[in-house]
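1st attempt posting a full record on here, be nice pls
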Amino acid sequence: MERESIRVTRSVAVPLAEIELRFSRSSGPGGQHAQKSETRVEALFDVEHSEALTPAQKRRVTAKAGPVLRAIAQDERSQWRNRELAIERVVEHLRAALHIERRRVLVLAMPSIVEDLEGIQLVGEGAEVVLIGGAAEGSETGRIFSYMNLARAFAELDAGAELVCLHKNRWWQTARGPLLDSGAFVAGLEYAAQTEATILGKPSAAFFDAALEALDADAGMTWMVGDDVETDIAGAQRCGLKTVLVRTGKFRPDAVEAGGVRPDGIVSSIAQLPDWLERSA
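the predicted structure (as tokens):
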């Protein structure tokens, strides 16, 4: 029974139906028989129209190898064997284009975040990137963001590493009330190392663009609901999303009044959102 798909990476399998095959007479070795039979095989993979790749993967492959991957096989007298070789070669092109070079990363983050960093080379020194995660309510925060660890991060930045953070929140709301968040440590490292952090999460445009792409949604038809005027509301508005501020968590009336950010709506609870949206339609 002929296989229906071919494994490219651990997470990507391409249906064979997405690989177009073209046959022609071979100009390679094989004698007169090869010249009379269509043993030459060209395999083509249309990156943009593939359903096996995510939008991010399509961008990566296109940037590295172009919108259409091609491979030719005319090594053998057998059309079937050349067909297999052409498919193998175009898949190898795709595998190479999908490959991400592993960067050496020093991580200061909660264990739950570190568990999600599979495939990243975690190091204690000689880092190319310093990644700062968020804080937590337990004692782990004090251990992870200790002076020793922050000094180690500074040393890597001073040696040329790039500073990256999940967010840059100044504080966050907990059961014990407002607590200092890791944004304070990011700001301190920026100041000490005279650098600027790349923010992966809110309020960066990359975060909201990735969310819209994953949802296949139009910004003007999408609502961001959150309790933080700066990261949730302002960040979303800069990307063209509509916004609703919730009077829970980090909500502070003075922050709304003092700032220049005005959400499209304010509700007291997330439970009120469906009715509010229906009334506002």
